Amino acid sequence: MSKVIERPRYVCALGGAIGTIQSLPRAIPILHSSSGCGGNLAGALSGASGYNGGNYCGGQALPSSNVSERDIVFGGEGRLQEQIENTLKVMDGDLYFVVTGCMVEMIGDNVHAVTKRFKGEKLPVLAAETVSFKGNSYYGYELVLETLFRDFVEPAPVKDAGTVNLWGVVPMQDVFWKGNLGVLKSLLKKLGYETNTFFGQGETLENLKNSGKASLNIVVSDAYGIEAAKVFEEVHGVPYITVPLPIGDHGTSRFLRTVGKALGVDEIKVEKLIQEERKAYYPYLERLADVYNDLDFQRYATVVGDPNYTQAVTRFLSDDIGWLPELVVITDILGEEQKERVLASFGEYESGLRPEIVFDEDASSVVGYINRHWPQNQGQKYHKGFAPGVIIGSVMERDTAEQFKVPLLPVTYPISNRVVLNRAYVGYSGGLTLAEDVLSLVVAHR
Amino acid sequence: MDYIKHKVPPVREDRLMACQAYGGTCGDLSTESKKGCLYASKRTFSQTQGCQLNLSLGMISSMRDAVMVIHSPIGCGGNLIQNAGINKVFQKLRQESAVGLRWINTNLSEVDVISGGEAKLRQAVLKAEREFRPSAILVFNSCVPALIGDDIDGILDDLQKQVSAKIVPIHCEGFKTKIQATAYDSVYHGLIRNLVGEDNTAKPAVIRTPEEEIEHQAKISKTVNLLNVGSMSRIDEEELVRLLKALDLNVRILPSYSHPDDFTYAHEAALNVSICATHDDYFVEHFKQMYGIPYVLRTIPIGIANTNKWLRDIASFFGIEEQTEKLIAAETAELKQAIEPFKAEFKGKTAFLTGGEVRILTTAELLHNLGFEILGLRGYHFDKYGEILLDEYLEDVPNSEKAIFNIGSGQVFEQANLLSKITPDLFVGHIGVNGSAAKQGYPIFPLFGQSDDYLGYKGVYEVATRVSRILKNASFNKNLGKNTRLPYRDSWYEQDPFTYIDDSASIAARIG
User: Fold this and answer.
1) ipTM of this predicted complex?
2) Where is the Nitrogenase/oxidoreductase component domain (chain B) (predicted)?
3) Pairs across A and B, CB distance < 8 A
4) A94 to chain B nearest CA, in Å?
5) Which among B230, B206, B226, B330 has a CA at the least distance from the CA of B275?
6) Set of chain A residues whose Cβ sits within 8 Å of the Cβ of B417
7) Residues of A with CB below 8 A from B502's CB?
């Protein structure tokens, strides 16, 4: 039986699907759901994601059939048909995508039968049953990608060796998604590849449509986007690899080696790129040589959030800036197989670190794990606790950080106490940004 | 009104014949509304809105020392996530030791949908009790358990024997109504049934000597329940308390940001003072029925005219007209002098307002009084309480019959179309629709805010200063207007903004 969750850090499949579609260029989601679903999710997709707004078509602009009690009795297919017809007249998009809420699933509406009637028209109308009691935001992301790969991406028998696709960075759930995708795209460019990221700056639906000709799909996650990659492989014959989200020198160098190997790039070329990047990276960190050591900037850290970020931040803190991220709390709902893959990404640290990793969805549990890892002072004269400490987590850790009197840097979802525009934490450049943010917190907190 | 013995309150479509789709003018609406058939109109193209579950959370998630249980699949109540780290600040303005937002979602899965969600509900309530030991556990029921037929009242009755927190079931299933404001009834329904009155099984009844009893009754005879709203700031509350105290009244503030215990003696009051009929009619009518407490419900104290009306309604109940007139005279004389410079500044400027019926009509009167011409209004819904205020508005604001009146919750495509045609100098909007107007380049004054003052006499001055400030530099929105695009076809702007309102059923209802 699934668990009840105290302060979940994700919404339902419908919410994840809306967030994903509204992050595609000129795509229009059409909700076939109760009237409140979109409004209920808007805050999670905007305010909780660094004030992302609704992009082109989100928030209260989302077309929705708004089925109510009457439709529950008589069925909502007629209303959906009318809604799609009129959406095509009013809303200006290049791709329309029907997603569903719980109620229409329970009354047995067949959305595919309805959207099929729009096949062959000028504009594509896709559909996915994003039933919310079947999964959370991440499941919605997978479903949308799977549908796009099956029904929108065109078959391409001839592959282009110089093009790859990349996903696994989930819009909204990764608050820095847009900046991050941009950094990964330019990294791969340096390796000699054109990359479709589907959601990043400058991407087009045309690129997505033609993504079947890519030679490799790179899933930058050990948890998300993998089912979609299997579908892509099955439909378009493109293989995939999974690689952890990279932050800073150690993470990104591993990323480049893994991707380079999968693409058959000459090892010397990869190492040369890594050396060049390091030559740019370390002179910045070098600036801190005095202050880091004069003021003893090393900290214990607790890292809280999704599997993508927690492993990336842990490696960065441990191996790039020499901290002690000894405790990691992973807050997503994961299956056993996912947990195994995720756990494997927390290893091989240069520092020799062996962090304690726990899986727990409840926000209030974090306090207990910190107390277990660093037992509180029971009045002893000599005591070693979570000090000096820092929490890298989400805004939900605000109270926890206050309680332990340590600074908090919100990096994982939700983030409602920072405004996020094009900031990126991945890659070498993102490592410097993270170093800036986290060390600023330490100097400001003196 | 007597629905309290029922488990679930009626929806507003039935109880108030509330209308959610209309396009016309203020004058037409006043006429049409009296025919009573507007509730039947609908839209053939619609955009998403909120539901009564998320408005219920907006109203009462601020309750102190409470834990919310949302009995639903994982997405319902998603808006709470954006407030997770922030809400505490506003609670702390009421109580230093406040702990902020705590909620548990029952995370209903496919298995639960087939075999029932009762076990998860039990788990969640027991977890809330065990982890947080709150004074109250508010249980919000959603669409899915309602459709699978979970007997939540039965389970909660049973659980109440095991937990010391007071359990409050709130039946706010979204699909039951398109009038979000039904949420207010659902929340009040739960609060009245479960929090009001002493629980003599838990603690002994208070025993008073005859002298103490006389003193107690004297105090009650001068006590009012001031019913606040979730969108209201602490500064607004302070302004209203200031005015009521000037009339020698004791003030108890309910329901937003209250403590569960604040309700225990809520029936020990002489008068219920509402600031919003949309928000409170269910509560005050029931308190009148159950405890014989009369109420003041007509208007919200926004702007001079409506603040005066609000105070006079209260005064006439207590028979303190003379004292009140003195207060009004002193306050308005001082205020009128203070706002005089703004009148010249705003003269000839135009405004468009959108939000709840009560708030927009009174804020429109305020802006009119400051010199603005009001070009149009959009109400979330419209019912008999709006009708009363609209008629007063038509009287207070000359030549307002021709101004646009559009009814719809969200439905920003209609708003965008209207704004492309009537181009006001200022847009006054409810949260959720301001971003859309911003992308059309308009200067925007938010209709309400949890950190700012809007109400009472002070509110008039503060609104004037903020509007003046906002109009001084609208570059941010102008840039957005020039460089972004709303997701509508150009052809949409050429059409009638009310093209997708289908009132055939309402015409049929009128003829039939």
Assistant:
1) 0.95
2) 51-471
3) 261
4) 11
5) B226
6) none
7) none
